[in-house]
User: What shape does this take?
Amino acid sequence: MEFREYWNIAIKRGWIILLVAVVAAVAAFGVSKIMAEVYRASIQLSVNPARADWGLSQATKDLLRNYVLNITSHTMTQKAIDRAQLDMSTYDFLANLDVSSDSSNMSIAIQAESRDPEEARQMAQTLADVFVEERRQWNSEQDKSDRIDVSKVDDIRDVPLASPKVKFNVLAGAVFGAIIGGIIVFFLEWLQSDILRTAGDVERAVGISVLGTVPTIGKARGGGRRFLPAWVNSGLLLIFLIGMVIGAGLGALIVGLL
Assistant: This one.
């Protein structure tokens, strides 16, 4: 196909792509607005060996995974729950907790999520405090040259909104809706690919020049249907409606996944 043909298709059916994209974006916006807000509190722990020794530094890096294991244990989280007087079980706590280590800078990141920003802050802050105190107690029983210090980089100051991300969801819904709209347009063109609409189509199909055409002398009669697009008469309205439903469902699905 020539570029002009693609341009004609875009002019003729481009509104389908735009409409499905808008429907998907609106669906994503609507679902984002009815979703419960979730806040995320983050705190970092710095792990430092007592001396600049390669062997002790390597041992410290190896211990990071063990520290993560201890932090995410039911025993440790229960201590945090009791201290902060949180109304939850350790299973609920762990389900909304994410702990990771970074050996490149010897740090541990603790993230807690909750619908209540203050509860999220207490979860992450208290758990960090409990673990730091436990490490200090362990260090008090070790030789000073063998100690591995664990301290908080900073206390938690801000608890930002983690989800839903309305702007991102709307943009993602619009993009994927446009993709679905493009697929619908492609399918509609494929169904009508054997229809000769212009003199150029006839010339390409039969391989000879068109000397003349029969002009249209009137509009087809059909009552109220004469104002509808031609593709409605070919039974393609159902395809378009299905595409609209898919676009709306896709927008809602994107919000759920993101």
About this structure: DSSP finds nine helices and five strands in the chain. Strands lie at 38-49, 97-102, 107-114, 148-152, 161-163. The chain has two domains: 3-34+164-257, 38-163. Residues 3-34 form the longest helix (32 residues).
